[in-house]
Write a structure and sequence with these properties.
Blueprint: H1 3-28, E1 41-46, E2 51-52, E3 56-71, E4 74-91, E5 100-104, E6 110-111, E7 118-120, E8 129-138, E9 147-151, E10 161-166, H2 171-179, E11 183-184, E12 189-190
């Protein structure tokens, strides 16, 4: 057997040993679901209550809804309902905003700001209130148990502080949203509410 062939066999054997060791090691390490210490720190609140999220304070100010919303002159109709949430963010020590906004219900369904839903929340300087708005398209049957999660980081919630706000909506709100006229999505603001 030539030296080159022995070298290639040796490299292949070492590669197989390393692959086996990596497989065993991967089986010992916890994944994201197996690490409960990595869960976000939920801070429960109701509409109108400020929530401290370490780098900012957030407060859901109002919740409205309609089957049709209008933004920048464009109407969006829904077979369900649109839930429009206005909230205020005050940064504590550096410019920041809420990049993560989603709705959740008691059946663990999640409505994120993808597709036709959106979160408009510009960064603001420390101590200056910023008015933000998020809107979500949801089925009418989910409205009565909706909660809103708000956080700074839009991609990674592990170990982060997250506002968990009960939107306190009822069956009467579902009926009201279904019959409401076109709802104009409010704009964002900085400093004082217009």
């Amino acid at each position: 057997m030539s030296a080159r062939r022995r070298h290639l066999l040796g490299v292949g054997a070492v590669g197989l040993v390393l692959l086996g060791a990596a497989t065993v090691l991967d089986g010992w390490l916890p994944d994201d679901e197996a690490d409960p210490g990595a869960d976000p720190f939920l801070r429960a609140a109701a509409v109108g209550e400020p929530v401290d999220l370490r780098t900012m304070t957030v407060q859901v100010d109002s919740v409205r809804g309609s089957a049709t919303i209008s933004e920048y002159g464009t109407e969006k109709h829904s077979p369900g309902v649109w839930v429009v949430v206005e909230f205020t963010v005050v940064a504590t020590s550096e410019n920041t905003s809420v990049s993560y906004a989603e709705l959740r219900d008691d059946d663990d369904r999640v409505w994120s700001v993808s597709g036709r839903s959106a979160n408009n929340c510009p960064a603001g300087p420390p101590g200056v209130p910023v008015g933000c708005v998020a809107y979500f398209e949801v089925p009418p049957g989910a409205v009565t148990d909706l909660r809103m999660w708000l956080a700074q980081d839009g991609f990674e919630l592990r170990y982060d502080a997250v506002a968990d706000v009960d939107l306190e909506l009822s069956e009467a709100d579902v009926d009201r949203f279904a019959e409401a006229p076109v709802l104009e999505v409010p704009g964002t603001w900085l400093g004082e509410r217009p």
